[in-house]
Each structure stands twice: as C-alpha cells, then as structure tokens.
Amino acid sequence: MKTRPKQECIRIYSCVVHWESSTVCLCLRRQSHPAEQFKMTSESADGNCLAWAASDPSGLLSPYKFSRRALGSDDVSLNITHCGVCYADVVCTRNKFGDSKYPLVPGHEIAGIVKEVGSNVRRFKVGDHVGVGTYVNSCRDCEYCNDGLEVHCVRGAVFTFNGVDVDGTVTKGGYSSHIVVHERYCFKIPDNYPLASAAPLLCAGITVYTPMMRHKMNQPGKSLGVIGLGGLGHLAVKFGNAFGLRVTVFSTSISKKEEALNLLGADKFVVSSDEQQMMALSKSLDFIIDTASGDHPFDPYLSLLKTAGVLVLVGGPSEVKFSPGNILMGMRTVSGSVAGGTKDTQEMLDFCAAHGIHPEIEVIPIQYANEALERLIKKDVKYRFVIDIENSLK
Questions:
Q1: What SS3 class is residue 3?
Q2: DSSP code of 184?
C-alpha cells in the first residue's frame, strides 16, 4: 500500500443525507482532508461577483456582491447564463437543518459560457458551453473519485453552495454572475443544446439518470413505474421513453393525467389511491423510481414489482416502512440514490442532446426568485424553474 507523509489537515464537510419535504437534500458534517490534495486560492477582495443571497433564516433573497477566488491553473471561470431552482435552495436558505452559513447564495444547477481557463486546463476553452452541478471539489484520490463517483467521495464532496472548501471559504452557488471551478467538476454542454434546458439536468436530471443506468433501466421493452410527477419525475418519464421502456406514472392527482400521457409521453397513468387500478398492475413492473416528496405507503408499490424487480428511492419522505415479506418473497430490491458522478453527468448531457430530451421549464428573472421558491414549496411549477441570470442579474 502506498504510504503518505504526514500532512496538515484542513477541516471540510462530508455528505449526510437528510429527508426533506420535496426531494433528497444534502447536509454537511465536518471531516478532514489533506491540504496538499487541493490547489485552491482564497477569495479576492474586489467584490467582482453579483448575486442574490439570503441573509437570515427567513430565506428572503436580495442583491448581494462578493468576490470569487482568483483563477487557478486547473480552474475554469464561467459567466453564468442560467441556474435551475431546486428544493435544496429552499432548505438551505431557510436553515432547515441548522447549518446554513449566511450570507447564502443558493443554486447548484448551473449553465454558462467559459470566459477564462487556467494554464493547465485542456478540456475547455473560452466560449465553450459548460455546466456545474451539486459539488465543486472532492479528494480525487479515493476509490469513488477514481471511479468517477465523486459525489460519494469517502472524504466528502464539497458542495456548490453552503459548503466549506479546503481554503476555509464558504461556497456560493449559481444565483450569481459567474463562478470559478476546478475543471474536473465542469461538464461540456453540447453546442446544439439550450443552456436554459441544460441547467435542471445538473441536479434533477442526473438524480434520476444515475440509478436508471446503475440498475440497467435502459433495456427496451422493460416496464418502469414513476411515482410522483414533479421536477424529477417528469425527467424520469422522458428518460424512460428514450430508453424504450413502457412507462406508467403514479400520482395522487388525476389532474396530472393529461400531461403525463400527452405532454410527457407516458403509456399509462394510475391514481395511486385507487385500489382497483393498483391491483390490476400486480407483479407487472420491472422497475420503479420513487420521486414522491410526501409520506406514502411502500407495500402497495412493492407488490407491483416482478420477481427481482427494483424500487429506487430518490424522493424524500420522512420515513420508509414496508413489510419484509414484500422483498423477501419476491427477491426484490429497494435502493436509494442522490445526484451522480462526473462520468455519469457528462454521459447524461450527451445523451439528452443526442435524443432531444429537454426538461419542461419556466424561465424567470432573478427578481422573481423569492416568488419562485414560494411556488416551489406549494408544488406550483411545471416542472422546473430556471433563472435567466444572463439577462436579469445586473
């Protein structure tokens, strides 16, 4: 085994999963990293970045100015054109987990255009379309980082906002004019793919794409159930269609039937509270992706899986309860997933561009961000807000 010299360690944060009322959100806890593994510089002092930030647990966003760190040799600096609005923005701006560090600039679904690159950068050039997702650093040395699964870094990924980077600075997200990120955590957005559409893929998209690929939900002719039809669920339906799956949407609201079938292209729509509709699908599904935010029973859905079927949880109920017999007798699997690594993220972006997969979005100016967060809490969005940073943040 390779030995390392004794190193000074800097305290940063590692991932802990908490359940919140809309989707899986990431919280942080302290953990050590060897300082030499990161080449990060401190923030400069010229107030070079415009943003909107929350200053207290009310979560109210208002204009804010701060300084991004200077460009490092391995860094990419990009002008942000668009940023998706995720429920994590609500959780952190309102200090739901008690760890928010104010002023807090949210946003981890970032799309933009490269304005400058460091001397060692080879993957990107000025003018390229680039995305940044839920994390901006990791140890780059553990088994998961080496496999392109940096979000599961043993020593903890550094999250795009409200995280603490190795230089001790608090990370600030995409509700801002530009960002500086190590090239490893940047993703090439194909030139023919709209930047506004790319933004939600960096969290919502990759959160459903990753488990679909891991559990081989890309086999044409197989059957997929999607529980919940929000920001994550509608993208699971679109991916399922692109993979050639037979897609059934489950929702508590009959009002979503027309859009599920006609806009998103699902094959079936089932009102999950209708016992007869549910019983008619007994042991018929190969896979289920559960994106539902509220508490709900699991046994009725597990009974819909075929033998060796898989249910993946990406939503955030406060608890998960099911009868052991429902997985023992059917040899079924219950799994979980959050976001994805750099390898899967780039693959997903390329796949979406090649197959014409676009999230359903509502583009808004930054000045509407507070109203958007309130509407998001009420689930009043179809199906993802995207902030037009380029044309509204002045």
A1: coil
A2: G
